[in-house]
Design brief:
174 residues, alpha+beta, 6-stranded antiparallel sheet, elongated
C-alpha cells in the first residue's frame, strides 16, 4: 500500500513536472519571439545604412513615427522607420541655383525593407525641389521644370525640407 502510494505520487509528480516543463518552454518561446521582434524594430537598418555611408551617402533625415499597441515597446521609444540620405559625391550643379542631387530613401514597413534612389533637382535660391526621371536627366529633357506645378516646397518637419536645407548649406562647395 505504501509502495503503491509512492508510485502514484511519483506518477502525479512526473505529470505535473511535464506540464510545467511545457509551460516553461512556451514562455521561453514567446519571450524569444518578442525579443527578436523588438531587436529587429530597432536594428533593421544598421548594416544597410553602413553600406550607404561607405559609398559616400550622408543621412539627412531620420523618421521615427511608428507606435502601436500591438508592439507596446514602440509606445516607449518609437523606432526609426526611414532614412533619407544624400550622396554628396554625386551632387552636380546643373544651372545657376539648380543642383542635381542623388537621394536615397531606405525604409522599413514592418514586413520588409525597401530602398528607393532618385535624382532630385534642388533650387537653392527658391528652396524648392522638383523631380525628373533618369531618362529625362540623361537626355537633358528638363522642360517640365519651367512649369510652376513641377516644383515643391516642404514644411520644416518633412524630409524634403531637410534635404533642401542640407544642399543649400553645402551648395558653395559643389
Amino acid at each position: 500500500m505504501v509502495v503503491a502510494a509512492r508510485i502514484l505520487h511519483c506518477d502525479i509528480y512526473g505529470v505535473i513536472m511535464k506540464e510545467r516543463f511545457k509551460i516553461i518552454l512556451l514562455i521561453i518561446a514567446i519571450t524569444a519571439y518578442i525579443a527578436f521582434d523588438v531587436y529587429g524594430d530597432y536594428t533593421w537598418g544598421k548594416g544597410i545604412i553602413q553600406n550607404y555611408q561607405n559609398e559616400g551617402w550622408t543621412i539627412v533625415y531620420k523618421q521615427d513615427n511608428y507606435a502601436s499597441v500591438t508592439s507596446p515597446w514602440t509606445l516607449i521609444k518609437t523606432p526609426v522607420t526611414g532614412y533619407w540620405m544624400v550622396n554628396v559625391n554625386g551632387i552636380k550643379r546643373y544651372h545657376r541655383s539648380l543642383y542635381l542631387v542623388p537621394v536615397a530613401h531606405v525604409y522599413y514597413d514592418y514586413a520588409q525593407i525597401k530602398e528607393d534612389v532618385s535624382i532630385d533637382i534642388i533650387d537653392v535660391a527658391r528652396r524648392q525641389a522638383a523631380y525628373a526621371t533618369p531618362e529625362q536627366i540623361k537626355t537633358n529633357d528638363l522642360k517640365h521644370l519651367q512649369r510652376k506645378d513641377s516644383w515643391y516646397s516642404y514644411a520644416k518637419e518633412e524630409p524634403g525640407y531637410e534635404i533642401i536645407e542640407y544642399v543649400t548649406k553645402k551648395a558653395k562647395s559643389f
